[in-house]
């Protein structure tokens, strides 16, 4: 068995598929959860070299072999060499997928994950089959997979309790033989974050590669650049936003405080309605032919009727038959995960609902 030799960049391997909204060629910059690379390789052993950094929240990497996750590792600062598999049969194709497990970290400008290249010796790369569909998922902590790892009683907000592999986006995509991309941020909403912060909202950053990141390094890596929608058009965009807005609205009401500058319930509904319509307009302009599904309800049904009526009303007003609302299954004591978030079981149930709905549309 030959030992792995030099590092070969992903750019030099056309059979390797880059996943997610990324930048870079020789070195691939992974920003969002679920971003990574995928390939088929026939050798006995292969390693990936990645470069990682962080100030507070370390990146984690998941390795999948032939459709099954075989490892999940936290990365140290600097160069990391991760063995993807070793001692396997030469000549037999192995389907490998490597995913960033942790979301883009707005709070940590030092958070970094880059794929430098692959190290191998005795095999060849084969062409991947084309995905049947392309799916984009937009959301908050639920879509980021927060709470899908760890004991139910865990409360610490740490990287380890996030997982791309355990989320409904990954499950739906795999069930439909689709390639997928994720835009999500824990605690963020449509108008405000969970704490009422009007800066922490997803829509203003949707048209950038990963515009919610901070720090000079992220800017230099292209995170703030305009995203090229034409290069990757999804067949469907699945939005799951509003939970953090609802949390902030309820908290403000209980404390007698303002939300988004008002205490008036009707004004709150109007602000939320306007923001949803504005975002749907941007998503449609960016993805002219995609089915757009707004899903909601995995963590309660506060403002569900407002969101449903707004989405369905916008579809009717614009005569857009490709915009839909889908009520998602609520999390129960049997399906809750760590940090009072939906656990793996909740994601599995939701994934099945979305999968079935998409099969009817696509």
TrEMBL record:
Per the record, the domain of life is Bacteria
Record-given protein name: GDSL family lipase
Q: Which InterPro entries match?
A: PCW_deacetylase/CE, SGNH_hydro, SGNH_hydro_sf
| Pfam families assigned | Lipase_GDSL_2 (PF13472)
Where in this chain does the record put each SGNH hydrolase-type esterase domain? 137-349
């Amino acid at each position: 068995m030959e030992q792995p030799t030099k590092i070969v960049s992903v750019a030099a391997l056309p059979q390797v598929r880059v996943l997610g909204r990324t930048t870079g060629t020789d070195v691939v910059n992974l920003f969002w959860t679920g971003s990574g690379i995928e390939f088929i390789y026939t050798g006995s052993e292969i390693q990936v070299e990645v470069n990682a950094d962080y100030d507070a929240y370390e990146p984690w990497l998941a390795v999948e072999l032939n459709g099954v996750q075989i490892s999940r590792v936290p990365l140290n600062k600097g160069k990391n060499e991760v063995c993807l598999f070793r001692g396997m049969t030469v000549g037999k194709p192995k389907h490998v997928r490597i995913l960033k497990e942790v979301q883009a970290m707005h709070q940590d400008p030092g958070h970094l994950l880059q794929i430098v290249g692959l190290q191998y010796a005795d095999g060849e790369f084969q062409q991947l089959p084309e995905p049947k569909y392309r799916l984009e998922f937009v959301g908050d902590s639920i879509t980021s997979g927060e709470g899908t790892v760890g004991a139910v009683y865990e409360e610490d907000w740490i990287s380890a309790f996030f997982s791309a592999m355990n989320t409904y986006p990954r499950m739906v995509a795999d069930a439909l033989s689709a390639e997928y991309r994720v835009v999500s941020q824990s605690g963020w909403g449509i108008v405000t974050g969970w704490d009422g912060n009007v800066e922490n909202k997803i829509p203003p950053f949707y048209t950038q590669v990963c515009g919610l990141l901070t720090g000079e390094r992220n800017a230099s890596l292209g995170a703030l650049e305009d995203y090229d929608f034409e290069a990757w058009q999804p067949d469907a965009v699945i939005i799951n936003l509003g939970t953090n807005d609802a949390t902030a609205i309820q908290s403000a009401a209980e404390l007698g405080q303002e939300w988004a500058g008002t205490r008036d319930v009707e004004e709150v509904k109007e602000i939320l309605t306007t923001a949803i319509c504005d975002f749907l307009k941007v998503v449609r302009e960016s993805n002219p032919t995609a089915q757009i599904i707004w899903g909601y309800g995995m963590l309660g049904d506060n403002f569900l009727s407002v969101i449903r009526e707004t989405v369905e009303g916008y579809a009717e007003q614009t005569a857009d038959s490709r915009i839909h609302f889908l009520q998602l299954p609520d999390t129960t004591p049997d399906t809750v995960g760590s940090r009072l978030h939906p656990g793996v079981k909740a994601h599995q149930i939701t994934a099945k609902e979305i999968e079935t709905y998409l099969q009817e549309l696509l």
